[in-house]
Amino acid sequence: MHDVIKRVTDEIRERSQESRSVYLNRIKAAAIHGVNRQKLGCSNLAHAMAPMCDEEKTSLSDMVQPNIGIITAYNDMLSAHEPYKLYPALIKRSLMDLGATAQVAGGVPAMCDGVTQSQPGMELSLFSRDNIAMGTAIGLSHNVYDGALYLGICDKIVPGLLIGALAFGHLPALFVPAGPMSSGISNAEKSRIRQEYAQGLVSEEVLLKAESASYHSSGTCTFYGTANSNQILLEMMGLQLPNSSFVNTNTPLREALTQHAAKTILTMTEAHGTYKPISSIIDERSFVNAIIGLLATGGSSNHTIHLIAMAKAAGISLNWNDFDALAKVIPLLCRMYPNGQADVNHFRDAGGMSVVISQLLNAGLVHADVETVVGQGLERYIVEPSIASGSLHFGAGATASRDTSVISSSQEPFSHEGGLKLLQGNIGRGVIKTSALKDEHLCIEADAIVFDSQEALQEAFHRGELERDFIAVVRYQGPRANGMPELHGLMPPLGVLQDRGFKVAIVTDGRMSGASGKVPSAIHIVPEAANGGVLSKIVTGDSIRLDIENGSMTLLIDNCELQKRQSVAPDTSSNRHGFGRELFSAVRQCVSNAEEGGTIFDISGKERG
Question: Pairing relation of β-strands 67-72 and 101-107?
Fold first, then answer.
């Protein structure tokens, strides 16, 4: 294995020693022999099984067979999660055939960032992750479950579910995807029409027709944003069935995989196999593998926040230095939109995770000796599922790409460095997604134009005031200011300006969508403006230099002048109410910064306060 990967893993393990010990001791204390419901009194148990059929009641009363909890993020306005409406019944039938039972333990919210993008509701998006974690804990708190299946795919949902699952680390856990929709219009065509609309060249009717041809059915959106990054990370962490994430929804193979997931969770319980709780699968190596998978595929920058929060739930401390050190040695193996024109269906057809994991293993760039839901060793994920003679079969998976324009090799990667980079300087610390940037955009020096909202930038664009080289400073977009919404709506106008030949970039304490990439975007800046960060002192006309290759982000003014300046704080009271935002005021007051995971939980699992 590469020395840098060993070193980073050792550093994480060392800094996490105390908090990891606390976590594991808590999980050990929660584990029991036998079924968990044996702790319940008769009245408690009667309540738990009241709506079940006689066969299920008999099974629960016998105190022998496992009862599996289902935490579902189903709703039918989120295309990725709409197929989950059928999953509980399918899972229950599959388990009943084996003598076990299952119950929907709880439902958690699942907001669609595609619907709330550039809308007030987006200010609840990041906070929904910790809300989902708490909802997961409430569902599992009934303590009648011997394992859990987690039905979730999209942006904050998987991180929230995993945080909740790790809080119940004594239970076996397995994540069950629903698969992507089939490919719609090309990503290049969709991007072109978006930019034309931003310029007023096409009507809203034309834009809606294009968007609807892209997002056209049940299933996960097919671009490589945060939702699909979640799926890749779950496989890298061994928490999902091998090479199963991108099998299309509502197909016989997808249904067979769901049934197999139900059977697999049983083998992880004491009654049906070897007791394998999630705490015995997830460790420091799991999170290093997740970061490596993110970098190798050019995944979502949102995970520089989410992975830190997820790791904290297991008593593991990650920081952006870990991401940056690994990015210098992990090659970029994939080209998927926005850093290419392919989508996840093309990725699957090129060999998918089987190829990526094979390439990383062969190059010594990933931990091989990890536990997974299907057994010891990451090589178990070099497979390809199919249906043969009416049964699910995991055959030998591809080890070399079937389409080198989508997946390359470790010998001839698209880039010798991963798709993310740490930026630091007198403005603070932040991250940037580099996988979609052209070489000529890797170093930009220009005057700042300061905006205190994304709407202000869009209005300036439409007034024709941005026809020049500039770096947009969009501040007061951090967790404490307004919940850290994604600013993906800024990409079409900035992309238009870039295509016109102007050098443009953005510096912000907000987030960008996992689908963003072609405009240099220094994001997640800490300290954020609302905490008195340097962002709050920048004025329009100041010069900023982004040297992405060398990882620097510099406000080019005299340090004495900077120290004299007072923070400029706009009126953000309008961000505090409407669309439910007033219900999250306490969250804004105690949320951590982006590099600490943007979370209300601390490293030992206690609430921040």
Answer: parallel
> What is residue 514's predicted lDDT score, i.e. its pLDDT?
61
* Residue type for position 554: T
Q: How many domains does the chain have?
A: 3
Q: Cβ neighbours of residue 160 under 8 Å, at least 6 residues apart?
A: 108, 128, 129, 130, 131, 132, 133, 135, 136, 152
Q: Is residue 312 part of a domain?
A: yes
Contact between residue 130 and residue 138 where contact means Cβ atoms under 8 Å apart: no
3-state DSSP helix/strand/coil % of the chain, to nearest 5:
45, 15, 40
Asked if residue 496 belongs to a domain, the reply is yes
- The residues, any chain, with a CB within 8 Å of residue 530's CB and separated by 6 or more, are 476, 478, 480, 481, 509, 536, 569, 572
d(CA 605, CA 608) in angstroms, rounded, equals: 9
More confident residue, 122 or 501: 501
Clarify whether residues 528 and 504 are in a common domain: yes
Asked whether residue 264 falls in the same domain as residue 321, the answer is yes
Distance CA 173, CA 169 (A): 8
Q: Same structural domain for residues 194 and 66? A: no
Cα–chain center distance at 186: 24
Give the residue from 78, 144, 69, 139 showing the smallest Cα distance to 107: 139
pLDDT digits (tens, 9 = 90+) for 461-500: 999 999 999 999 999 999 999 999 989 889 889 999 999 9
Of 11, 10, 4, the C-alpha closest to 325 is 4
Query: Looking at the DSSP assignment, which residues form a beta bridge with residue 430?
Result: 423
Amino acid in position 287: F
Asked if 136 and 208 sit in the same domain, the reply is: no
SS (H, E, C) 41-88: CHHHHHHHHCCCCHHHHHHHHHCCCCEEEEEECCCCCCCCCHHHHHHH
What CATH number is given to the structural domain containing 543? 3.50.30.80
Q: What are the tens digits of pLDDT across the range 128-156?
A: 999 999 999 999 999 999 999 999 999 99
Q: What CATH number corresponds to the domain at position 254?
A: 3.40.50.2300
Instruction: Give how far Cα 214 sits from Cα of 73, 135, 179, 208, 289, Å.
Output: 23, 32, 16, 10, 32
Q: Are 548 and 467 in contact (CB under 8 A)?
A: no
On the 0-12 / 13-18 / 19+ scale of CB atoms within 10 A, 191 is buried
- What tokens were used for 411? 């010998």
Gap between the Cα atoms of 504 and 512, Å rounded? 16
Burial of 213 (0-12, 13-18, 19+ CB in 10 A): middle
Tell me the C-alpha to C-alpha distance, in Å, between residue 58 and each of 45, 121, 202, 503: 12, 46, 64, 69
**Among positive and negative, which fits the CA dihedral 297, 301, 306, 310?**
positive
Q: Tokens representing 377?
A: 């060793």
Q: In terms of residue numbers, what domain contains 208?
A: 183-216
Task: For residue 403, give both structure tokens.
Answer: 């389409």
Same domain, 160 and 204: no
Classify burial at 100, counting beta carbons within 10 Å of its beta carbon; exposed 0-12, middle 13-18, buried 19 or more: buried
The residues, any chain, with a CB within 8 Å of residue 194's CB and separated by 6 or more, are 207, 210, 492
